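Sequence in, structure out. Go.
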Amino acid sequence: MFNRSIKPLRVLIISALCAVALCALFAVFPLASAETSLAQTAKDNQELARLYREDQADRTPPEGKAIDWSVVSQRDRARLARVKELYTQNRLQTANDYYNAAMILQHGDVPEDFLLAHEFCVVAISKGKVDARWLAVASEDRFLMNIGRPQRFGTQYRAVPVTAPYRLYTVDSGVTDELRRAMDAPTLAQAKAREAEINKKR
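Output:
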């Protein structure tokens, strides 16, 4: 009778010791979450990378050549449509994917494109791409400008009428130069000084 009660007790003690050992093991080597595992294995979308390179190439023509905006605008629209398709198909996975898509959306036509670009930049930054900060503020400024509100960081310029010199678009006073620096944006004085530089290139 005594021996019979010892056996189950032994099994119970061994089981408890195994459980404690497993807990200690997992504390030292925690199981990777599904999200962490996915982040480690996800690869940049090569189509998005190509679209990004084409977008930038269209804006950096060979020395001495002007940008033919009638051609570039058509390419922009095609790239934009494809980026939206990839987005709705959940094909954006990495920080670079979100950044590349955001740059193409930044060259869109409507406020919703600029707002989505801003949101993509937030995701890219959260995934570790700190150099998406400038694009995050530029897309926010472009969104605000296109809904008739003052921009906040001072990244956007406008010529009214189109034949007039470019001027820094109205800037809200709510953002400090310290915040601008934190987001890789020029100070307000630097943004104003850039007007002359932009107009030289016209």
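Check: The chain is about 65% helix and 0% strand. The first helix runs from residue 2 to 28.
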